[in-house]
């Protein structure tokens, strides 16, 4: 089984995160996003638009999943985590994960009302590598 440190290291090396929400009809919706800006314990922090469909879906139903993969020349590895997603408007966390280039997306800067933080709290996961899959509980890794 992977350790928490190995999982975080794997995630930090990826360029894309896939985030799944649940729509009003109960169907999963997947979106590619930038990788988490901050990882702390079992929490992963992403930036996004407050007005986005995904933010609205998470406010209605916090069930979520995040997925990361690396397709190498001879090896495919992936990690899927399931848990809950919160939409945060807290000024402190917004400032903490803000990056200089974000003004391209949020013209008013860190205080732009359309800028929010998605906080994903992982509960369980699944790791795949070398034709083997393994499920795990996050609590067992902390």
Structure description:
- This protein is of the alpha+beta class.
- It is built from 3 helices and 8 strands; from the N terminus they run αββββαββαββ.
- The chain has helices spanning 4-13, 53-60, 91-97, and strands at 16-22, 28-34, 38-40, 43-49, 63-71, 76-88, 115-129, 132-137.
- Strands 1, 2, 3, 4, 5, 6, 7 and 8 form an 8-stranded antiparallel β-sheet that branches.
- Strand 3 (38-40) and strand 4 form a beta hairpin.
Notable traits:
globular; 8 strands; alpha+beta; 142 residues; eight-stranded antiparallel beta sheet
| Spans of at least 5 consecutive residues with low confidence | none
Structural class: alpha+beta
The total count of strands amounts to 8
* Gross morphology: globular
Mean pLDDT across every amino acid position: 94
Largest sheet: number of strands, sense, barrel closure:
8 strands, antiparallel
Order of helices and strands: HEEEEHEEHEE
Number of helices: 3
Span of the ends, CA to CA: 13 Å
Question: Cα-atom Rg, whole angstroms?
Answer: 15 Å
Which strand-content bin applies to the residues? Answer: over 45%
Helix coverage percent = 10-25%
Layout of SSEs?
Elements: H1 4-13, E1 16-22, E2 28-34, E3 38-40, E4 43-49, H2 53-60, E5 63-71, E6 76-88, H3 91-97, E7 115-129, E8 132-137
Antiparallel strand pairs: 1-2, 1-5, 3-4, 4-7, 5-6, 6-7, 7-8
Summary of the model, kept short:
The chain is α+β, with helices and mostly antiparallel strands and 142 residues long. The protein has helices at 4-13, 53-60, 91-97; strands at residues 16-22, 28-34, 38-40, 43-49, 63-71, 76-88, 115-129, 132-137. Strands 1, 2, 3, 4, 5, 6, 7 and 8 form an 8-stranded antiparallel beta sheet that branches.
């Amino acid at each position: 089984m992977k350790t928490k440190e190995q999982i975080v290291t794997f995630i930090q090396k990826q360029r894309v995160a896939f985030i799944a929400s649940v729509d009003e009809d109960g169907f999963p919706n997947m979106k590619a996003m930038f990788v988490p800006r901050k990882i702390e314990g079992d929490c992963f922090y992403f930036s996004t638009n407050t007005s986005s469909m995904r933010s609205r879906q998470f406010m209605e139903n916090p069930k979520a999943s995040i997925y990361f993969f690396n397709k190498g020349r001879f090896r495919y590895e992936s990690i899927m985590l399931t848990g809950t997603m919160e939409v945060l408007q807290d000024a402190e966390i917004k400032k903490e994960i803000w990056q200089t280039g974000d003004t391209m997306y949020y013209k008013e800067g860190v205080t732009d009302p359309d800028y929010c933080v998605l906080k994903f709290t992982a509960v369980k996961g699944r790791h795949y590598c070398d034709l083997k899959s393994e499920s795990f509980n996050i609590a067992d890794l902390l």
